[in-house]
Write a structure and sequence with these properties.
The protein is α+β, with helices and mostly antiparallel strands. It is 32% helix and 27% strand. The protein has two domains: 156 residues, Ribosomal Protein S5, domain 2 (2-Layer Sandwich); 118 residues, Alpha-Beta Plaits (2-Layer Sandwich). The strands form two sheets. Strands 1, 2, 3, 4, 5 and 6 form a six-stranded mixed beta sheet that branches. Strands 8-9-7-10 form a four-stranded antiparallel beta sheet, sandwiched between helices. Strand 5 and strand 6 form a beta hairpin. Helix 1 runs parallel beside helix 2, helix 1 runs antiparallel to helix 3 and helix 5 crosses helix 7. The protein binds cytidine-5'-monophosphate. The site of cytidine-5'-monophosphate (C5P) has 11 residues, from strand 2 and helix 5.
Length: 291
């Protein structure tokens, strides 16, 4: 069996509208989700049973036991397909942990993709999406892996048009924010769904204008819990060429959008100098359309 290496792309919620809550407590969302070229790397090689090793700058924030989403994904995929094959999985963890940009969800989705390839499995797509949703509300959209409108609690994923090739700067205070705590702090302050129309993807100016009128409803509660999120947003907005600054997911990672990836790379250098205690990574949207 050939080893397989995949990128677990970081996920960015370009907007995130919380429109209601289900009886079981999960919140109903409407979000435009995109993926970046930056992400974790997952390598699958031949091995006895299922094993996981973790390296990279954020390895310390994780456990490699059976609760790890990657091992849960692997074991549930085996059950779904009725196989008992083995794999040695290595994760190179470069996405900060509990950061609102996919992290664990992207890793779980990458494990499903890589293992289907490695083990030559072709499970029913609906069953695989159900398995993904059981691992976490963001796992189905990460499995989709390209720009998507996400609705429901995360189970309704529909493709969105390709995004313009803007520069993306991700920043994180290296302080995790608890997703359940942020949803709780929203305290029922739901907003309307306001899906961006396809025409808004046509050019960068229309796209940025449409994003400006949309929201991340979890931003205010996250700022209340972790005021550093507000400080990061202000710092992003103060960077030369930053066209839009928002929080992703339930935080604490925030992103800035720039005219092109070069601008974002220069802004990352400035940001690292002015805020040496915070994490900054410039990137671009994966599969973006040249401007
Ligand atoms: O599904 P996931 O593990 O990503 O969610 C973590 C927690 O975030 C859930 O247990 C729930 O409290 C909250 N959540 C929510 N509505 C969503 C997604 C997550 O209330 N759509």
């Amino acid at each position: 069996m050939q080893s397989v290496t995949v990128t677990a792309a970081a996920k960015v919620n370009l907007y995130l509208h919380v429109t209601g809550q289900r009886a079981d407590g999960y919140h109903l969302l409407e979000s435009l989700v995109a993926f970046t070229e930056f992400g974790d790397r997952l390598m699958v090689s031949p091995g006895e049973g299922l094993s996981l090793t973790i390296g990279g700058p954020f390895a310390d924030g994780l456990t490699d036991g059976p609760d790890n989403l990657i091992l849960r994904a692997a074991s549930e995929l085996r059950d779904l397909c009725g196989v008992t094959l083995g794999a040695a999985i290595h994760l190179d963890k470069t996405i900060p942990v509990a950061a609102g940009i996919g992290g664990g969800s992207a890793d779980a989705a990458a494990a499903l993709t890589a293992l289907c390839d490695f083990w030559d499995l072709n499970p029913d797509r609906t069953a695989l999406d159900d398995l993904a949703l059981g691992l976490g509300a963001d796992v189905p959209v990460c499995l989709h892996g390209r720009p998507a409108h996400m609705a429901g609690i995360g189970e309704e994923v529909t493709s969105a048009p390709d995004l313009p090739d803007l520069g993306v700067l991700l920043v994180n205070p290296l302080q995790g924010v608890s997703t359940p705590q942020v949803f709780k702090a929203l305290n029922g302050a739901f907003g309307p769904a306001d899906r961006i129309p396809d025409a808004a993807f046509a050019d960068p100016a229309s796209f940025l204008a449409a994003l400006h009128t949309r929201r991340n409803d979890l931003m205010a509660p996250a700022v209340n819990i972790a005021p550093v999120v507000g400080e990061m947003l202000a710092a992003l907005e103060g960077l030369d060429g930053c066209r839009l600054a928002r929080m992703s997911g339930s935080g604490a990672t925030c992103f800035g959008l720039f005219d092109d990836p070069g601008h974002a790379a220069r802004a990352a250098d400035v940001f690292r100098t002015t805020h040496p205690g915070w994490w900054a990574q410039s990137t671009r949207f994966s599969g973006a359309r040249p401007i």
